[in-house]
Predict the structure of Xaa-Pro aminopeptidase.
Amino acid sequence: MFSIDVYKERRDKLKKAVGHGLILFLGNEEVGMNYRDNTYHFRQDSSFLYFFGLDKPGLAALINIDEDIEIIIGNEPTIDDIVWMGTQPSLTEIAAQTGINKVAESNSLGILIKKSLSSGQAVHYLPPYRSDAVIKLSDILEIPNTKVKEGASVILIKAVIAQRAYKSALEVTEIDKAVNISNEMHLAAIRYSKENVTEKYVAGIVEGLALSAGGTIAYPVIYTVNGQTLHNHPTNDTLKKGQLILCDCGAETAMHYAGDLTRTFPVDQKFTSLQKEVYEIVLKAEQAAANSLRPGIRFLDIHKLACEHLVDGLKQLGLMKGDVKDAVSEGAHTLFFQCGLGHMMGLDVHDMEDLGEQFVGYSEGMVKSKEFGLKSLRLGRELEAGFVLTVEPGLYFIPELMDMWQAQGKLKDFINYDKLAAFRNFGGARVEENFLITESGYQLLGEPLIKAVSDIEGLNRL
Amino acid sequence: MFSIDVYKERRDKLKKAVGHGLILFLGNEEVGMNYRDNTYHFRQDSSFLYFFGLDKPGLAALINIDEDIEIIIGNEPTIDDIVWMGTQPSLTEIAAQTGINKVAESNSLGILIKKSLSSGQAVHYLPPYRSDAVIKLSDILEIPNTKVKEGASVILIKAVIAQRAYKSALEVTEIDKAVNISNEMHLAAIRYSKENVTEKYVAGIVEGLALSAGGTIAYPVIYTVNGQTLHNHPTNDTLKKGQLILCDCGAETAMHYAGDLTRTFPVDQKFTSLQKEVYEIVLKAEQAAANSLRPGIRFLDIHKLACEHLVDGLKQLGLMKGDVKDAVSEGAHTLFFQCGLGHMMGLDVHDMEDLGEQFVGYSEGMVKSKEFGLKSLRLGRELEAGFVLTVEPGLYFIPELMDMWQAQGKLKDFINYDKLAAFRNFGGARVEENFLITESGYQLLGEPLIKAVSDIEGLNRL
């Protein structure tokens, strides 16, 4: 945890922004994998962490703005809890850790809420993404499961984003730590890659490093020879000579801040000439995008700039033709780059994604596009100092999508369909780094991790 | 997956046992860690795996026994699914993998169920342990969340247990594989243990090995110097000279069968003499219990036998006194051994725990005890050939529990309370192995893993 004052200040600011009523934060619960008590690793809700710092299941928090009361809700430990889980702090001790001196037992939460509702107070809560939270809210608010999500408070959502979007120095230090652990994971990923080992073999080592460093993975490890598939999990297939590996993985620190990096490298020590050509197009787009980061520029425009660099490279490769800007504005590049250039990062790897991408990534009056490609751009808004984000262009050769477009003759003035056949089994390439927006521009987070072809080829395999 | 015939035979047997009506199996869904799309690793429901073998989220299965119809329910993949997740089989292809030729879209499940209910058919389903399943069942059965669990079918529960409790040769081979991977995890745990590394450092390596082997962990890794806490997670504390480590971890194979082993060993290369004494009491109890395994004996009686061995050892250590059998029947040993000797193992590490321990671990007419100690014995029933189970006695020195009993003067004819002080910081020791009950006795699963003091001391640290 940070110091108590950090959480108190955050809550004071939040109370001012929301103005009136009751704010209810539900902490996360344990989730059973294959039965109730065989649980996944516990992950606390990020907004709960941000405002309270308490990293334990079974908690909730109630802020009565009008009466200026804060309450931590949970259950007192029993002797059975101590036998099975070790010495446990009392609820009062837990609350004190975040500077709150009022507590209540879980079964009284419904009554507290009902009292406020009947006295005309609004109850603000964030949209739940876990089913147990839906059930809990349905129970205490006495509304059906299906009505819970739509009852979430837009005022609260906006107030939370207005704080969490700007990372403090303390937070940047944590993210820096996360990126440096992620660096170690990537170096291991490259070094352990070789013919005849399985994808899962290497991915297991990589995930183990995140755990050994004291936290966990920030998201499921992507380590695949099918890099064209954007969210691919490692398989038990063995690596083969000539294949290209895309590894997208990052650590979450013990304090739950994320790193999020991607590197692309060959199974063999050296890239083939085609792999090198494609990879360097992506690398150039990534560098150009990074160099443009600064307060005041819209990330949407940096996305477009990166797309132009990709199209430019694809033209040199013979896959695309025509005017670069026209190609991008028509969306022709989305045959090869189907997603967005990046996203906010913090306590969540896609920071605050549960609060809604429109609110997080777009400013008032700027509506997220529904078009293929742009609909996957999570961040479009004007950048501000304190934002932390990823830049991650890529080129993805998806046979099903190429076949579909070709059959439709889609945007054929920009695509050389006769040249696509050679890329059916290419896979995909992506480079991803993490940046802080500063007053004057940007700062790379973590120590620089190798990305030039010569550096990757120069790293000896184990 | 096993061959199609395996799943067909299992379903035919189930239909006969249940007799009439509709059987609804819900496969598991993805669960978001900190937002919906950042998911934990997917874990299919074990009964769904057992009867259908389909290892994918978003599926359900409906068996209409009266009309002899089997249907797989899910959604057809979209082009977006292919872009984000790669080439996807159609629902019909998925169903064919388990020998079913009828499919329906997810949104038709409620209608199918309603038709059956209105025609007077009973709908059998297993008790849900995930909140999303509760919401789904509440929706399709049109009952409140709180009524879902009590509506689960006891006929179906018993029929499922009557099949899953007896492991086939194919299943035993998979469990054997899981135990052998678990062996590698334990050897690494011992070898990487040394002064000044953190618990999480070693636990991360151990978990990485489970992933690298192609599956995952069967349950959260326990690796702790506080072995007296029964379910303890590794911390970022560093290991110190003189400490005793308890490591309880096991792999789950790619087919989701579990291994479950425990070893206890010192941070240093050598046990202290007290550590050795306590450890060897536990080891002796474990061996005595294992040697008694055979069809026809109640596991409750083997549990008692192990407890007697523990008490015998504790008397020699000076911690207990009086008649051994009396001490066990009075429950005096539960000050040091608070839990049960073992449990069934299979697709779940605590096999079928979600179906209810009374049904799984106890036969008709044999009611699970509510007493401290025995209430945690998951398995009491008469053993039969084909059962797979763990044997895991231990000695746990829990300061809070010792203080509580001492203050009450509880069972003071059996406990030498004046001798307890020396054990306040001892921690705990456990040895655990996995066995198949055979026609003639038992068989150790996996290759033998070192457990003698001399073998553990002889394994060089890294």
Q: What stands out?
A: Residues 77 and 89 of chain A are 8 Å apart (CA to CA).
